[in-house]
Amino acid sequence: MLVWTVCAALIVCGVLLRHPYLFQDVQYVLAKIKRRRFVLKCMQTNYSILDRFLDLVKTQPQKTLIYFKDEMFTYREADVLSNRAARAFLQAGCVKEGDAVALFLGNQPMFLWLWLGLLKIGCPGALLNSNIRSKSLLHCLNCSGATTLVASEELLDAVKEVLPHLHEQQITVFILADRCETAGVESFIDKMNQASSEPISKELRSHLTMQSPAAYIYTSGTTGLPKAAVVTYSKVWNFSLLLATTGVNSKDVIYDTLPLYHSTGLLVFTGAVERGIPVVLRSKFSASQFWDDCRKYNVTVIQYIGEIMRYLCNTPQKLSDKNHKVRLAVGNGIRADVWRDFVRRFGEIQIREFYGATEGNFALLNYSSKMGALGRHTFLHKMFFPYAVIKYDADKGEPLRDSSGFCMEVEKGEPGLLVTKITAKAPFTGYVTDLNQTEKKKLHNVFKKGDLYFNTGDLLRIDEDNFMYFHDRVGDTFRWKGENVATAEVADILVLTDCVKEANVYGVKVPGGRAGMAAVTLMDGLKFDSTVVFKHVEDFLPSYARPRFLRIQVCLLQLFTLFAFVVKPLSVEQDVFDSLALKTKMSTNGKERT
């Protein structure tokens, strides 16, 4: 018996030496299978994240749900305030069963009370990016089908810009203020204050299923204006369970500085509800106050995007850098060098990098703490959650296919397009009212006739140890300040100015990521008016989408003159720049002359 035990131990040791990540790989796949089974069970019983929240209101009513500045709100108080919001919508008579309501505000508790209130009456919230203006704002409203808009008081000027168009479309407009003197805009706060806080009848949401939309979250994708991804109740569960998969437990306190209108920010709230824990909500990320907040609220888990970690590493060093209780960081987009600097400076915090898309049907998690990786490529994972990294023709903008018309998987070390199989268990719900863009994200006959895959639009590579790394995005997009910028949208805005005839926009590498570069040609007989163009860009584009560089060309194929907007940020906490000075450069025989 002892001999057999020793032999078995030796075999196990041999396997582990050859496959050191085997146990972790198996554990991760089993966790994902368990997560999928839980979601399927919720679908059968129609148990939503709202039901989970209401259960917590009963079992832990006095536990804190939200910390915000010097305020704190318990689960019970969140229930009361969201009841008032729900009744205010109903009593205003502007919302009926299934109607979408657009929420146009930044991070604040009211954002959550409004969204929870809408869920209670069976309506999805269209979560508008608070940076959008004018044409983009109207587009996002139109594609969601929302007939009601609720905006924060700080965004009243942005609402006024498009108010005539809103009235033409018979959209009811509310502002989050005690009173409003703008004609055609009603106060919402006074309606909430007058509304009852009694529980909302479940009958009002009896029409919902787990495939019903809980929210519309906007994504730039790869082309054109923002698209409203349909986030169903089952997808909300998938978002929420990610925190549990990364190791967040019922004793944690999580810090959320990311916008709630993005899935990454909303995930923290819904994930905290799934865990039954508090969320420290901040209106906007601040590098200088980040660790002070963590100490003040006893934060144990933080969420990040790559820019946040880089900003934190760029702040002046302090003796208190490791004086905190943070044990876990969950997010995406951290570079290997920033990862290394972060843990060296702020302590042995576990980093759990994940990969996923708002509209996607697949996710990766770096559970092995391999710096720079998104996750691991394993046979077991691929068997239960089918995906592939396929050869891609960047010039044609499409996958490469063999003589039989089928796609081919890449070799180790070769970048390729990540595609994920669309099935009943892993659906792709697409974009609301945009069937064309929904179809564009589907790939047919990938490995056999009749199969269907989701095109992530991301190029990944797999190394010799089966770790997966992000390589680049395909299509007309780049990422800046944590936001996806659709180049076609920026180009469309630029050609609206009187002097610009054509525009081509793309991202160029700068320290910290990719910044926008616009190549333009001018109208015949007109000169470039920097003041007019700058004001136009400032009025019509959010700060993150504004080009930092502008090339003026005779045609879009030949460089003539380069104009560069030279930017000087006030601090890492600001998303906008203090000033833009126009600098002219001429290109002569391949050399640059100022």
UniProtKB/TrEMBL annotation:
User: Under the GO molecular function aspect, what terms does this record hold?
Assistant: long-chain fatty acid transmembrane transporter activity; long-chain fatty acid-CoA ligase activity; nucleotide binding
Q: Which parts of the sequence belong to the AMP-binding enzyme C-terminal domain?
A: 489-552
| Stored SUPFAM superfamilies | Acetyl-CoA synthetase-like
Q: Which InterPro entries match?
A: AMP-bd_C, AMP-binding_CS, AMP-dep_synth/lig_dom, ANL_N_sf
What does the UniProt keyword field contain? Ligase, Lipid metabolism, Membrane, Nucleotide-binding, Signal, Transmembrane, Transmembrane helix, Transport
Which GO BP terms sit in this record?
long-chain fatty acid import into cell
Signal peptide location: 1-17
Q: Where is the AMP-dependent synthetase/ligase domain?
A: 57-365
| Cellular component GO terms held in the UniProt record | endoplasmic reticulum membrane; plasma membrane
Record's superkingdom? Answer: Eukaryota
Q: Which reaction does it catalyse?
A: tetracosanoate + ATP + CoA = tetracosanoyl-CoA + AMP + diphosphate; a very long-chain fatty acid + ATP + CoA = a very long-chain fatty acyl-CoA + AMP + diphosphate
Which family is it part of?
Answer: Belongs to the ATP-dependent AMP-binding enzyme family.
Protein name according to UniProt: Long-chain-fatty-acid--CoA ligase
In which organism is this protein found?
Maylandia zebra
